[in-house]
Amino acid sequence: EEYGDCTNFVLTFAAELLNQAYELLRIGVHPSDIISGYKIAASKSLELLESLVCHKVADMRNEEELTQAIKSVVAAKQYGYEDLL
User: Fold this and answer.
1) Is 68 helix (H, G, I), strand (E, B) or coil?
2) How far apart are CA 67 and CA 84, in angstroms?
3) Alpha carbon separation from 65 to 55, 68, 73 (Å, rounded)
């Protein structure tokens, strides 16, 4: 299982949101309606995000907790080096 900082996903997702907005503009949807829809979607996403958390770091000074939290990110970017933490 691979995790990372999702940079590629964020860029791809943002580009797709812009593509969808462009298509909506082409069919005559008013820009303020598109913005309102995106704001509603963002609000709902933030609401659901808390239920998707798989790990929280309770104590930032706890080396074991921090290692567990960042190990998958290091593995996604520098495969094979995650055990050096």
Assistant:
1) helix
2) 10
3) 9, 5, 14
